[in-house]
């Protein structure tokens, strides 16, 4: 199963995670795919409920383009385009040369601690 872990990290935690991933890669191992945000507000702004619904739909109906998605979901083309662009920029969607969309991950795991970074 191909999965990505999404986290809310302080700058210090982000540096530690980057260092760990770098060491793992230097050993020739594949690091877990990760995406980090500086706050819950940033995470929820980038990955909204509508965008998660869109990801699930694309995962079940790969190969559609943006216009087809808008038609099938009954949503405004501009809004779908904005969501697709945002998710593609984050690496949560992929688009081939013909515009067909696919979801590269089978699972998204979101980690958001409730205590501030004590270190």
What's the layout of helices and strands?
Elements: E1 3-8, H1 11-26, E2 33-37, H2 40-46, H3 49-60, H4 66-73, H5 77-89, E3 94-95, E4 101-102, E5 107-111
Parallel strand pairs: 1-2, 1-5
Antiparallel strand pairs: 3-4
Would you mind describing this structure in some detail?
- The protein starts with a strand and ends in an 8-residue tail after the last strand.
- Helix 1 (11-26) links the parallel strand 1 (3-8) and strand 2.
- It has a single domain (3-111), classed as Arc Repressor Mutant, subunit A, CATH 1.10.10.
- The protein has five helices and five strands; from the N terminus they run βαβααααβββ.
- The mean pLDDT is 90.
- By secondary structure, the protein is of the alpha/beta class.
- The strands form two sheets. It has a three-stranded parallel beta sheet.
- The chain is globular and about 45 Å long.
- The longest helix has 16 residues, at 11-26.
How much of the polypeptide forms β-strand, as a percent range?
Answer: 15-25%
Estimated radius of gyration: 16 Å
From the N-terminal CA to the C-terminal CA, the straight-line distance is 34 Å
The CATH fourth-level homologous superfamily = Winged helix-like DNA-binding domain superfamily/Winged helix DNA-binding domain
Report the sheet with the most strands, covering strand number, pairing sense and barrel closure.
3 strands, parallel
By secondary-structure content and strand pairing, the structural class works out as alpha/beta
What's the tally of helices?
5
Any guess at the CATH architecture? Orthogonal Bundle
Poorly predicted parts: none
CATH topology-level fold name: Arc Repressor Mutant, subunit A
**Strand order in the largest sheet:** 2-1-5
- The CATH C-level name is Mainly Alpha
Residue-averaged pLDDT:
90
Total strands: 5
């Amino acid at each position: 199963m191909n999965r990505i872990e999404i986290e809310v990290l302080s700058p210090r935690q982000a540096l530690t995670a980057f260092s760990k991933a770098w060491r793992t890669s230097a050993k020739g191992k594949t690091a877990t795919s990760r995406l980090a945000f500086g706050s819950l507000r940033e995470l929820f702004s980038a990955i909204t409920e509508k965008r998660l619904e869109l990801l699930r739909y694309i995962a079940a109906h790969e190969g559609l383009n943006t216009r087809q998605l808008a038609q099938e979901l009954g949503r405004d083309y501009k809004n779908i385009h904005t969501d697709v662009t945002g998710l593609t920029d984050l690496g949560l969607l992929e688009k081939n040369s013909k515009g067909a969309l696919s979801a590269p991950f089978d699972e998204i795991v979101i980690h958001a601690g409730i205590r501030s970074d004590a270190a």
